Fold this sequence. Notes:
Transmembrane segments: 21-44, 141-165
Largest sheet: 5 strands, antiparallel
Keywords: Membrane, Transmembrane, Transmembrane helix
Radius of gyration: 32 Å
Protein name: Integral membrane protein
Shape: elongated
Number of helices: 3
Amino acid sequence: MSAHRRLWRLRSNSLRRREDVMEAWIVLAVWVLIVVGGAVAGVVTARAAAAVFTHQRAEQHAVQAVLVAGVPLAPTVWSADGRVRAEVRWLAPDGTAHTGRTLVDSGLKAGSRVTVWVDGQGQLMLTKPAGPAEGALEAGLLGLGAALAFAAPVYGAGALARAWLDRRRSADWEREWELVGPRWTHRTS
Length: 189
């Protein structure tokens, strides 16, 4: 299809109505907003997420902890990787002992050594931070989600505006037909 046919609403035409021109501008504005706004929202979100993941990798570090109580072999609560929450004890950098709950492999006995992740303040994290590749993938997916979240309401608003224009066109056609229609009827006596 040529560009000439695609832009028919903007061409000079004796049958072109004001609603047709409005619809053409609405469609153009919606697509520009979706492309530009969605790209900006996606890039900003992806960069922010990547910065958070980089900060987490820099701040969090692994420490050795001791399992306080044994963990059953079969997980009692469903987990994607078969790990369960259990209480562990570890030493902070200043030498103070801390306890907390984190995810560990099932089937471990009390006193087993496990690796846990803590942040710069010594607070226990549930999981290790995302690696560079994993963080980049997750940041990209979050950016894509942000772009789609921006585009959906813009597209919806454009669809509502076009539906309103369609109702106006239908009402105009109905009024015009009431004027013209009686002249076209054939009366037989």
